[in-house]
Amino acid sequence: MDRIPILRMGETLLVTIQVDMQDQTALALQDDLADRIAKTGASGVMIDISALEIVDSFVGRMLSSISGIARILSATTVVVGMQPAVAITLVELGLSLEGVKTALNVERGMAMLAAVRAEQRHGG
To answer: 6-121 adopts what CATH topology?
Structure first.
């Protein structure tokens, strides 16, 4: 089974999903991310899905689940690079990705995480 690498950039963990995920890979990513957030104290998780051309309901639920786990561990999740077809599919599947922040690209995602951190530091 392939593991998806998790890179640390300061207070942010960056995950770039380059392959269409199988269920086991998605579950392993969920566990790996939870461990890394707990070990590093990361305040942000950015998941780049720009290489994903198709998603199913399992992957959509997994993104929501990762966001929920991260939130419980005091980290904000931003999903970046969503293709229009992926967004349409998620809506058609009835998955709103509640609690998941989205941005068009990594640069905007990093800016979003920086804004969230600034707000948290100033009692927001």
So the answer is: Transcription Regulator spoIIAA (3.30.750)
Can you list the alpha helix ranges (DSSP code H) found in the chain?
Answer: 23-40, 57-72, 84-92, 106-121
Residue with tokens 């948290």: 120
Helices and strands in the chain, H and E counts: 4, 5
The Cα–Cα gap between 117 and 12 comes to 11
- Cα 6 to its chain centre, rounded Å, is 11
> 14-52: per-residue pLDDT in tens?
999 987 778 888 889 999 999 999 999 999 999 999 998
Torsion of CA 78, 84, 85, 91, to 10 degrees: 60
pTM (2 d.p.): 0.90
Beta-sheet pairing, 12-16 with 6-9 = antiparallel
Give the span between the Cα atoms of 60 and 86, in whole angstroms.
10
